[in-house]
Amino acid sequence: MRKLVLKMAGSSMLRKTVKALRLHVPVNSWLHHFPVVKTLPSGIRYRARRVESLALSAEMFDENALYDITDSPADIRTFADLGCNVGYFTCWLCDRLKNTQLKGLMVDANAEAVEDAQWHVEQNNLHDVYALHGLAGLPKEGFKDFFLHTSNVCSTATPEPGVSADSWTRVQVPCLDIEDNWHKRFGDTPCDLLKMDIEGSEKEFFQNETRFMRRVKTVLLEWHKCKVSLDEIVGLLSPQGFALKKILYQNEAAGTAIFVKNTVDAAPNVNKP
Length: 273
Prior knowledge:
The protein is an alpha/beta fold. The protein is built from 10 helices and 12 strands.
């Protein structure tokens, strides 16, 4: 069974066939009880409890195909990962930097994914990294609807039109103030790297979290074209001092880009209204 699961993760055609036949349901059940656990050359450990997580780990760790931090203007000591899923980006970052002393926040609206993110924190002794369950970028009071997808990499605050209702489960998730959570744990420390994959809530975040954005130096952003355009993102970030540095990847549905603040002074007037 283990060999079959690992082969499945490495083949996109096999993954699609498995999904079409709904074979991922028993496979995910098996993985939940017998997760795949691997150790990277740096000693960072990660686990996969779903087929989707195995596929994501292959892209991120084996192929190194998803992210690039070479254009960051300074050493990365602090980070925030919004839409962290199971926490692989934190593992990838610690592995690439050869550093487990990073300070950071991981945030996701999927409680099961946050459970995995917390496992990665504990297994890798990341004493200054915190995994939080909640929504970022929305008004910071009470709870909001969130839609869990049958695939844990597709959940969203605003489900795409035309997708079968059977694919989504509506849940209530607390809204988080990222600036307040950051300041509570790290004081006025700047955020060297903000990684965002929040499935269409980018505009709301940049509009509602201007205080937090004052302390951010570099933004690594995935945007979803059906919900926001790159021009809209540029229009929101430019007044906050960010310039588009590089587009890492782009297709007809989404893209990944790096934005760098024009000045990298350490969080001036970060608590100014």
